[in-house]
Amino acid sequence: MINLLEDEKIIIEQRRHWIVVLYQSFALIAAIIVPLLIIFSLSAIEPIQVLFFGNIKSITGLLFILISWKFCIFTIFFIVWTNYYLDVIVVTNKRLIDVEQRGLFARDQTSIPIKNIQDIKIEIIGFLPSLLKFGHIHVQTAGQIKELLIKNLPNPIKIKDIILNLISY
Amino acid sequence: METTHEILTIAIPLIFLIALIFWGVISAVLNHHWTRYGLNAKKIKIIQKIYFGLSVAFLAIMFALMIIYLLYD
Q: Chain A closest CA to B46's CA: distance in Å?
Protein backbone atom coordinates (compact mmCIF):
# COMPACT_ATOMS: atom_id res chain seq x y z
CA MET A 1 0.00 0.00 0.00
CA ILE A 2 1.30 3.46 -0.91
CA ASN A 3 0.13 6.26 1.34
CA LEU A 4 -0.66 9.30 -0.74
CA LEU A 5 -0.11 12.85 0.48
CA GLU A 6 -2.78 15.51 0.59
CA ASP A 7 -4.02 16.45 -2.94
CA GLU A 8 -1.82 13.75 -4.40
CA LYS A 9 -3.18 11.83 -7.38
CA ILE A 10 -1.78 8.77 -9.13
CA ILE A 11 -1.04 9.59 -12.77
CA ILE A 12 0.55 6.37 -13.93
CA GLU A 13 1.28 3.00 -12.35
CA GLN A 14 3.75 0.88 -14.28
CA ARG A 15 5.24 -2.57 -13.77
CA ARG A 16 8.21 -4.23 -15.44
CA HIS A 17 7.64 -5.47 -18.98
CA TRP A 18 5.79 -8.83 -19.19
CA ILE A 19 8.80 -10.37 -20.99
CA VAL A 20 10.66 -10.24 -17.65
CA VAL A 21 8.10 -12.47 -15.93
CA LEU A 22 7.97 -14.74 -18.99
CA TYR A 23 11.76 -15.06 -18.89
CA GLN A 24 11.63 -15.96 -15.18
CA SER A 25 8.88 -18.51 -15.90
CA PHE A 26 10.86 -20.45 -18.53
CA ALA A 27 12.35 -22.75 -15.89
CA LEU A 28 8.86 -23.37 -14.50
CA ILE A 29 7.46 -24.18 -17.95
CA ALA A 30 10.35 -26.64 -18.45
CA ALA A 31 9.64 -28.13 -15.02
CA ILE A 32 6.05 -28.81 -16.13
CA ILE A 33 6.90 -30.32 -19.52
CA VAL A 34 10.10 -32.33 -18.84
CA PRO A 35 8.63 -34.88 -16.33
CA LEU A 36 5.73 -35.55 -18.72
CA LEU A 37 8.18 -36.17 -21.57
CA ILE A 38 10.29 -38.47 -19.38
CA ILE A 39 7.25 -40.51 -18.30
CA PHE A 40 5.99 -40.68 -21.87
CA SER A 41 9.36 -41.93 -23.15
CA LEU A 42 9.93 -44.38 -20.28
CA SER A 43 6.43 -45.83 -20.57
CA ALA A 44 7.58 -47.64 -23.72
CA ILE A 45 10.17 -49.67 -21.72
CA GLU A 46 8.52 -52.87 -20.47
CA PRO A 47 9.86 -53.22 -16.86
CA ILE A 48 9.01 -49.56 -16.19
CA GLN A 49 5.62 -50.00 -17.83
CA VAL A 50 4.85 -52.88 -15.44
CA LEU A 51 6.18 -50.98 -12.42
CA PHE A 52 4.32 -47.71 -12.99
CA PHE A 53 1.40 -48.60 -15.22
CA GLY A 54 0.80 -52.22 -14.20
CA ASN A 55 -2.27 -51.67 -12.02
CA ILE A 56 -4.51 -48.96 -10.58
CA LYS A 57 -2.38 -48.65 -7.41
CA SER A 58 0.76 -47.91 -9.45
CA ILE A 59 -1.02 -45.41 -11.69
CA THR A 60 -2.51 -43.67 -8.64
CA GLY A 61 0.92 -43.43 -7.02
CA LEU A 62 2.45 -41.97 -10.18
CA LEU A 63 -0.44 -39.52 -10.59
CA PHE A 64 -0.06 -38.41 -6.97
CA ILE A 65 3.64 -37.64 -7.49
CA LEU A 66 2.92 -35.79 -10.74
CA ILE A 67 0.11 -33.69 -9.22
CA SER A 68 2.30 -32.87 -6.19
CA TRP A 69 5.04 -31.66 -8.55
CA LYS A 70 2.56 -29.51 -10.51
CA PHE A 71 1.21 -28.09 -7.24
CA CYS A 72 4.73 -27.13 -6.19
CA ILE A 73 5.33 -25.37 -9.55
CA PHE A 74 1.93 -23.67 -9.32
CA THR A 75 2.86 -22.21 -5.91
CA ILE A 76 6.30 -21.09 -7.15
CA PHE A 77 4.65 -19.42 -10.15
CA PHE A 78 2.53 -17.30 -7.79
CA ILE A 79 5.67 -16.30 -5.87
CA VAL A 80 7.26 -15.16 -9.18
CA TRP A 81 4.05 -13.34 -10.14
CA THR A 82 3.83 -11.61 -6.73
CA ASN A 83 7.42 -10.37 -7.10
CA TYR A 84 6.50 -9.03 -10.53
CA TYR A 85 3.19 -7.49 -9.44
CA LEU A 86 4.53 -5.73 -6.36
CA ASP A 87 7.56 -4.38 -8.21
CA VAL A 88 6.05 -1.15 -9.46
CA ILE A 89 6.70 2.50 -10.17
CA VAL A 90 4.02 5.02 -9.41
CA VAL A 91 4.08 8.55 -10.79
CA THR A 92 1.84 10.97 -8.93
CA ASN A 93 1.42 14.70 -9.40
CA LYS A 94 3.89 15.18 -6.50
CA ARG A 95 6.26 12.21 -6.41
CA LEU A 96 7.91 9.39 -8.28
CA ILE A 97 7.67 6.25 -6.16
CA ASP A 98 9.74 3.19 -7.04
CA VAL A 99 8.84 0.02 -5.16
CA GLU A 100 11.26 -2.83 -5.58
CA GLN A 101 10.19 -6.24 -4.35
CA ARG A 102 13.31 -8.37 -3.79
CA GLY A 103 11.88 -11.81 -3.12
CA LEU A 104 9.19 -12.38 -0.53
CA PHE A 105 10.97 -10.91 2.44
CA ALA A 106 12.72 -7.79 1.18
CA ARG A 107 11.19 -4.62 -0.16
CA ASP A 108 12.66 -1.24 -1.09
CA GLN A 109 10.58 1.87 -1.56
CA THR A 110 12.14 5.05 -2.95
CA SER A 111 10.17 8.24 -3.13
CA ILE A 112 11.42 11.28 -5.03
CA PRO A 113 9.53 14.58 -5.10
CA ILE A 114 8.86 15.65 -8.70
CA LYS A 115 10.44 19.06 -7.98
CA ASN A 116 13.75 17.30 -7.14
CA ILE A 117 14.00 15.54 -10.50
CA GLN A 118 16.66 17.21 -12.62
CA ASP A 119 16.98 14.99 -15.64
CA ILE A 120 15.73 11.73 -17.08
CA LYS A 121 17.64 9.45 -19.41
CA ILE A 122 16.20 6.41 -21.11
CA GLU A 123 18.09 3.39 -22.39
CA ILE A 124 16.71 0.94 -24.92
CA ILE A 125 19.52 -1.41 -25.83
CA GLY A 126 19.25 -4.59 -27.88
CA PHE A 127 16.99 -6.20 -30.44
CA LEU A 128 14.26 -7.45 -28.10
CA PRO A 129 13.91 -4.21 -26.09
CA SER A 130 13.70 -2.23 -29.35
CA LEU A 131 11.11 -4.61 -30.78
CA LEU A 132 8.97 -4.81 -27.63
CA LYS A 133 9.59 -1.18 -26.64
CA PHE A 134 11.00 -1.58 -23.14
CA GLY A 135 14.10 -0.23 -21.44
CA HIS A 136 15.72 1.37 -18.42
CA ILE A 137 15.06 4.84 -17.02
CA HIS A 138 17.78 6.82 -15.21
CA VAL A 139 16.37 9.58 -13.03
CA GLN A 140 18.85 12.24 -11.89
CA THR A 141 17.78 13.98 -8.72
CA ALA A 142 18.85 16.89 -6.56
CA GLY A 143 18.19 14.98 -3.35
CA GLN A 144 20.14 12.44 -1.35
CA ILE A 145 19.66 9.77 -4.01
CA LYS A 146 21.68 11.10 -6.93
CA GLU A 147 20.43 8.66 -9.51
CA LEU A 148 17.57 6.19 -9.57
CA LEU A 149 17.68 3.35 -12.08
CA ILE A 150 14.39 1.70 -12.99
CA LYS A 151 14.90 -1.39 -15.14
CA ASN A 152 12.84 -3.02 -17.89
CA LEU A 153 9.91 -0.63 -18.03
CA PRO A 154 7.52 -0.76 -20.99
CA ASN A 155 7.15 2.50 -22.95
CA PRO A 156 9.99 4.38 -21.21
CA ILE A 157 9.59 7.32 -23.64
CA LYS A 158 5.97 7.81 -22.58
CA ILE A 159 6.91 7.67 -18.88
CA LYS A 160 9.74 10.14 -19.47
CA ASP A 161 7.33 12.53 -21.21
CA ILE A 162 4.79 12.27 -18.38
CA ILE A 163 7.46 13.06 -15.75
CA LEU A 164 8.93 15.92 -17.80
CA ASN A 165 5.44 17.40 -18.22
CA LEU A 166 4.95 17.24 -14.46
CA ILE A 167 8.30 18.97 -13.86
CA SER A 168 7.43 21.80 -16.26
CA TYR A 169 4.15 22.56 -14.40
CA MET B 1 7.78 -53.83 -7.07
CA GLU B 2 6.50 -54.61 -3.56
CA THR B 3 9.37 -52.61 -2.06
CA THR B 4 8.41 -49.61 -4.26
CA HIS B 5 4.83 -49.80 -2.97
CA GLU B 6 6.04 -50.12 0.62
CA ILE B 7 8.15 -46.97 0.20
CA LEU B 8 5.29 -45.12 -1.49
CA THR B 9 2.86 -46.09 1.29
CA ILE B 10 5.03 -44.08 3.69
CA ALA B 11 6.18 -41.43 1.19
CA ILE B 12 2.77 -40.38 -0.17
CA PRO B 13 1.22 -39.26 3.17
CA LEU B 14 4.55 -37.60 4.01
CA ILE B 15 4.61 -35.70 0.68
CA PHE B 16 1.00 -34.66 1.24
CA LEU B 17 1.80 -33.36 4.73
CA ILE B 18 4.89 -31.45 3.50
CA ALA B 19 2.87 -29.98 0.58
CA LEU B 20 0.15 -28.89 3.00
CA ILE B 21 2.63 -27.17 5.36
CA PHE B 22 4.55 -25.56 2.44
CA TRP B 23 1.28 -24.32 0.93
CA GLY B 24 0.04 -22.99 4.29
CA VAL B 25 3.19 -20.96 4.93
CA ILE B 26 3.52 -19.64 1.35
CA SER B 27 -0.19 -18.77 1.19
CA ALA B 28 -0.03 -16.82 4.44
CA VAL B 29 3.00 -14.85 3.16
CA LEU B 30 1.49 -14.23 -0.29
CA ASN B 31 -1.86 -13.19 1.13
CA HIS B 32 -0.15 -10.79 3.52
CA HIS B 33 1.79 -9.21 0.62
CA TRP B 34 -1.28 -8.95 -1.62
CA THR B 35 -3.50 -7.33 0.99
CA ARG B 36 -0.83 -5.05 2.44
CA TYR B 37 1.08 -3.94 -0.66
CA GLY B 38 -1.30 -4.56 -3.56
CA LEU B 39 -2.41 -1.36 -5.29
CA ASN B 40 -5.58 -2.57 -6.97
CA ALA B 41 -7.94 -4.20 -4.45
CA LYS B 42 -10.29 -5.52 -7.15
CA LYS B 43 -7.48 -7.28 -9.04
CA ILE B 44 -6.07 -8.69 -5.81
CA LYS B 45 -9.49 -10.19 -4.94
CA ILE B 46 -9.56 -11.96 -8.33
CA ILE B 47 -6.01 -13.28 -7.86
CA GLN B 48 -6.87 -14.52 -4.36
CA LYS B 49 -9.91 -16.38 -5.73
CA ILE B 50 -7.85 -18.00 -8.52
CA TYR B 51 -4.98 -18.91 -6.20
CA PHE B 52 -7.03 -20.31 -3.34
CA GLY B 53 -9.57 -22.00 -5.66
CA LEU B 54 -6.91 -23.83 -7.67
CA SER B 55 -4.89 -24.66 -4.54
CA VAL B 56 -7.89 -26.29 -2.89
CA ALA B 57 -8.57 -28.21 -6.13
CA PHE B 58 -4.95 -29.45 -6.22
CA LEU B 59 -5.03 -30.46 -2.55
CA ALA B 60 -8.40 -32.22 -2.97
CA ILE B 61 -7.07 -34.23 -5.94
CA MET B 62 -3.90 -35.10 -4.03
CA PHE B 63 -5.96 -36.15 -1.00
CA ALA B 64 -8.27 -38.33 -3.13
CA LEU B 65 -5.31 -40.00 -4.88
CA MET B 66 -3.61 -40.59 -1.53
CA ILE B 67 -6.73 -42.26 -0.11
CA ILE B 68 -7.18 -44.42 -3.24
CA TYR B 69 -3.52 -45.42 -3.11
CA LEU B 70 -3.60 -46.32 0.59
CA LEU B 71 -6.91 -48.20 0.49
CA TYR B 72 -6.49 -50.01 -2.83
CA ASP B 73 -5.12 -53.55 -2.69
A: 13
